[in-house]
Amino acid sequence: MAELRVFPLSCVVQKYAWGKIGLDSEVAKLLASSDPLAQIDPDKPYAELWMGTHPRGDAVILDNRIPQKTLGQWIADNPGCLGSKVKETFQGQLPFLFKVLSVNTALSIQAHPNKELAGKLHAQFPEHYPDANHKPEMAIALTPFQGMCGFRPVEEIVAFLQEVPEFRALIGNVAAEQLERSVCNDPRGVSAALRVCFTRMMKSEKKVFVDQLNMLVKRISQEVAAGKDTSGSSGKLLLQLHSQFPGDIGCFAIYFLNLVMLQPGESMFLGANEPHAYLYGDCIECMACSDNTVRAGLTPKFIDVLTLCEMLNYTPAPSSSKVFAPTQSRLDPCVYLYDPPVPDFTVMKIEIPSSIKLYLISAIDSASILLVLQGTAVGTSTAAISEMTLRRGSVLFISANESVSLHLSSLDGMLLFRACCLL
C-alpha cells in the first residue's frame, strides 16, 4: 500500500468563556458543517478551533488505516513530512499552530516575549511560562474584527491626558507633562516618557485606579444619557470593556493602545513585545507553537506587571501601520500570501472562482494544514489513496511536496486557508 501522506483531521474546539455563543460562533458553524453528528449547545461558548500538534489540542487523524491516532504522534514518527528545511530548522516539530477564533468579549491585554526573554522566563517561572519559545501571531479577519495593538501616536495619548481628567490623575501630572514635552523630542525621549506613563498606570494601587475608573464610567454614562459626543474619551469602547471587566486596569489601556478595525481579508501581525488585545469578531489566527503570554489587564488571570512594563515595545505608531494586506501570488492568481516577518509561518488564502471546476493545490517544501471556509469539492492525491470529501469546516493535513487536486462541486467557488512554513 502506498504511504498515506495527505489525510483529514478532526480538530480540538476550546470553549473559553470569551467565545461567541452557540451558532453565533464561526467556530461552531465550521464544526457543525464539517461533522453532521456534532451537537452544538446553543448556550455554550465556542471560542477557538485548534489545527495543529499542540499538546493541549493535538488534532485527531480521521483515517483508520493510519496507526497513529494524532497528528503530533504521526509527525514524530514521520518527520520527513515537514520538508527538509523545516525539519532541520524546527527540530522535527510542526512550527506553527493554526486557529479559528470567535471573540464575543475581550481577551486579555497581553504581549508575548521574544525568544531570549521566553527562555529566561521559562527557566525562572515555568508555572506561568510553560515553554521557551517566542509567540509571534497573525490574525486575518473573517468578519469585521476589532482589536487593540501597539502604542498610539503620542499626540493621541496626550489628547486623552488633556481630555480625560481621571486618566491624567492616574498617571500623575509629572509623568503626563514629561510625555507632553516629549512630542518634539527624539524617538528615544518619546519611548522613555511613554514607558514612565504606562508603568505609572500599571503600578497604581488598586483602590486608586478603581476610584478613578468608577468616576470616569459614571461621567461617560451621564454624557451618553444626555446625548453628548464621547468620542474624545473613547466613551463607547470604555463602557463596552467596563461592562465585561468592571474595575479592571485594562479599561484605561484604551488611552494608550491603538484601536484597530479589520475588514474581512485584512490582517494584523503581532510581533514580540507588542501589547495587544482582541475585542470582537471572527478571525483566522496563525502563531508559533507556544503558550507564553504576559498579561496586562482585562483578565482575572496572573498579571506580571514588572515583566510586562520592562519588555514592551514603546514605539508609538498609527493604527493604520498595524494593518497589512496580503500579496497576490505571481504563480497562481487564486492565491494571496500573508507572509509575516518571522520564519515560523505563512498563511495562504485561496479563492477559487466558480468558473474553475478543477484546481490543483500545489506542492510546497513544507507540511501544511488546509481549512475549507466555503464551498465543496472532492479531493484526490497520490498520497491519499481514496477520495476525500471536502466541505465547509473540513481540515486536511498535506505533507511536504504533496499536491491535492480539487474537483469542485459548489456553484459559487471555494474559499480556503492554508498554513505552512516557507523558509
From TrEMBL:
Cofactors named for this entry: Zn(2+)
Subcellular location: Cytoplasm
Catalytic activity: D-mannose 6-phosphate = D-fructose 6-phosphate
Keyword Transmembrane helix: no
Entries under Gene3D superfamilies matching the protein: Jelly Rolls, Phosphomannose Isomerase, domain 2
The EC number(s) this enzyme carries: 5.3.1.8
Enzyme superclass (EC): isomerase
Listed pathway(s): Nucleotide-sugar biosynthesis; GDP-alpha-D-mannose biosynthesis; alpha-D-mannose 1-phosphate from D-fructose 6-phosphate: step 1/2
Coiled-coil stretches: none
An annotated GO cellular component: cytosol
Entry annotated with the keyword Cytoplasm: yes
Co-factor note (free text): Binds 1 zinc ion per subunit.
Domain Phosphomannose isomerase type I catalytic residue range list: 6-154
Chief localization: cytoplasm
Ranges of residues in domain Phosphomannose isomerase type I C-terminal: 337-377
Gene Ontology MF, one: zinc ion binding
InterPro entries in alphabetical order: Man6P_Isoase-1, Mannose-6-P_Isomerase, Pmannose_isomerase-type1_CS, PMI_typeI_C, PMI_typeI_cat, PMI_typeI_hel, RmlC-like_jellyroll, RmlC_Cupin_sf
Pfam family, one: PMI_typeI_hel
Domain Phosphomannose isomerase type I helical insertion: 170-257
Keywords: Acetylation, Cytoplasm, Isomerase, Metal-binding, Phosphoprotein, Zinc
Residue sites binding Zn(2+) per the record: 110, 112, 137, 276
UniProt function note: Isomerase that catalyzes the interconversion of fructose-6-P and mannose-6-P and has a critical role in the supply of D-mannose derivatives required for many eukaryotic glycosylation reactions.
The family this protein is said to belong to: Belongs to the mannose-6-phosphate isomerase type 1 family.
Name the record gives this protein: Mannose-6-phosphate isomerase
Organism whose genome encodes this protein: Gopherus evgoodei (Goodes thornscrub tortoise)
Lineage: Eukaryota, Metazoa, Chordata, Craniata, Vertebrata
